[in-house]
Amino acid sequence: MTGSTALREVLGPHLRPLAIAALMQVIASAASVVPLCGLLVLIGRLTGTAPGSPWNALLVFLMGLACSAGLNSLALLVCHFVDTGVQARLRRALADKMGRLPLSWFDERSTGRVRQLVQNDVGSIHQLVAHTIVDTLAGALTPAAGLVFCLCIDWRLGLASLVPFATYLLLYSLLAARGNQETVAAMHRGLERVSSAIVEYVNGIGVLKIFGRPDEGSARFAKESADFREEFGALVAPQMRAHAIAVTAISAPFVALVMLAVGAWTVHSGATSPSEVLVTLVAALLMPAGFQTLAASGQARSQAMDAARRITEILHGPELAAPDRPVRPDGTDIELRGVCFGYGEDDSDAMALQDICLSVPAGSVTAVVGPSGSGKSTLAALLARFRDADSGSISIGGVDVREIDESVLRATVGTVLQDLQLLGISVADNIRLGRPQTPMERVVEAARAAAIHDEIMALPRGYDSVIGQDARLSGGQAQRVCIARSILADAPILILDEATSATDPESETRIQEALDRLATGRSVVVIAHRLHTIAGADQIVVLDRGRVVERGTHAELMAADGLYRSLWDSANASSEETREGAEAR
């Protein structure tokens, strides 16, 4: 999609008020000749070369100024009102769209790139809507109205007023380099890298400080900034040099020189009067300001079209396919048949999951364990349909998850992932995220069940404390808030991906007891690396390199003396070493 087409799509719902603002500016530009006419008459009456009272001419002059300036201000006001609607609509649309995009979309884009899209690209649209549309019309029509006025006074004075612009364009075209669109695209890529470096530095500052390398993150940001500065300078230097030389042609001294030279000729020949030359000089001196505004508006239009193209690419991006005829699952049993999934690699050996076949009976607890990188978290993401399998099928209650409406699926499958995210809202609202209308009593019950109630009450404002402001939670506390959220959602299927990985032993015991109570009557899939927490599961599935290598109960797998037994012995040995170290201290 081209930039202009994308821009029309972005601004489509707002074209009527923008057209009204444009009409106001057209009238304002046409009215800009009224003060010039009033000034011409006023000078004539003040010098005695024209009959009548100068006060009437002064009134016309002032009314013309007021009309032109007032309509211009009103047009800008309308555009700013429209701009607030455009920004709100785009940001809501982008947020809604990102909520429907598969996780693979975010894998391919850094946090800085997403921030660049939502903040800077929408900001580029703001500049166009709030300022550039009116400025472009004013920059084109107001000088045109001044040119018409000069031509009406004398055609030679009118042509003289064009000489500075023609000189500017000639000099700039001879000196400037080409490729404005490439310059804008390169600037955007540079800003993306700088934005990504900022986000990476902020997110990793804690780790860098721990290892005594706080300057490393800032060094990358400084390098990206320096590279961007050099790249930006190399890109814009030819245009800036050309503009610096060419702009002398539309400077006030050059314009005055041309107009006075031609004006002296016309006065000497008797074609014009000194007052007419003076007023056309004023008109000519005002024209370059509009021309420079028009040139600046061109840059803003290019940036806005580039931003609109990126925004529409996201809004039209492929989502997880929605079913044409959704089917509600009948039950909570889960069935995986021949499921394969890879992160874009062509080599089948690099597939994250290969030929996974698994049954989770309704009301049972299935634990999935395995070495790091064996595909456990990928399996959890597929079960929750954050991604779609490359091949094979995943069904819930006898219905393929791709045939279940997303709202029904989210109400059926509750998840607690190891990558915890709490929103910048109150703790209570974080817990009731899936059920916004839940009364406070039930929120507290869920928090108690997740063993986080006491810590919440210790916050400055208890459950009303806002995450990131007066609520600073540890990893274990945040994990228990997420567990409370899932408890409150009361989904019949639970997927717990490392649900107790960031908790201390005491909290882990309480959480495990809560999860055991919660699992009653539900289908539960637990992804865990603390094997003692899942020893009582109905079945344990062992993954290795994306394949199911063992399955059975804890006793059966221990007796089989395979990978599970090796993982169990290793975990127990680590626990014993930790305990001995603590006793030695």
Automatic annotation (TrEMBL):
Q: Does the keyword Nucleotide-binding apply?
A: yes
Q: What is this protein called?
A: ABC transporter, ATP-binding protein
Q: Can you say where in the cell this protein is located?
A: Cell inner membrane
In this chain the ABC transmembrane type-1 domain maps to 19-303
Kindly give the membrane topology term recorded for this protein: Multi-pass membrane protein
Q: Which domain of life is it from?
A: Bacteria
User: Could you tell me which species this protein originates from?
Assistant: Propionibacterium acidifaciens F0233
GO molecular-function terms, A-Z: ABC-type transporter activity; ATP binding; ATP hydrolysis activity
Where in this chain does the entry annotate a coiled-coil region?
none
Q: Which PROSITE patterns match?
A: ABC_TM1F, ABC_TRANSPORTER_1, ABC_TRANSPORTER_2
SUPFAM superfamilies linked: ABC transporter transmembrane region, P-loop containing nucleoside triphosphate hydrolases
Instruction: Tell me which GO cellular component terms the UniProt record holds.
Output: plasma membrane
Segments forming domain ABC transporter: 334-570
Q: Which Gene3D superfamilies match?
A: ABC transporter type 1, transmembrane domain (1.20.1560.10), P-loop containing nucleotide triphosphate hydrolases (3.40.50.300)
User: One Pfam family this chain carries?
Assistant: ABC_tran
Checking InterPro entries in the record gives: AAA+_ATPase, ABC1_TM_dom, ABC1_TM_sf, ABC_transporter-like_ATP-bd, ABC_transporter-like_CS, P-loop_NTPase, Type_1_exporter
Sorted UniProt keywords: ATP-binding, Cell inner membrane, Cell membrane, Membrane, Nucleotide-binding, Transmembrane, Transmembrane helix, Transport
Q: Which residues cross the membrane?
A: 18-43, 55-82, 244-265, 277-296
Family, according to the entry, reads as follows: Belongs to the ABC transporter superfamily. Siderophore-Fe(3+) uptake transporter (SIUT) (TC 3.A.1.21) family.
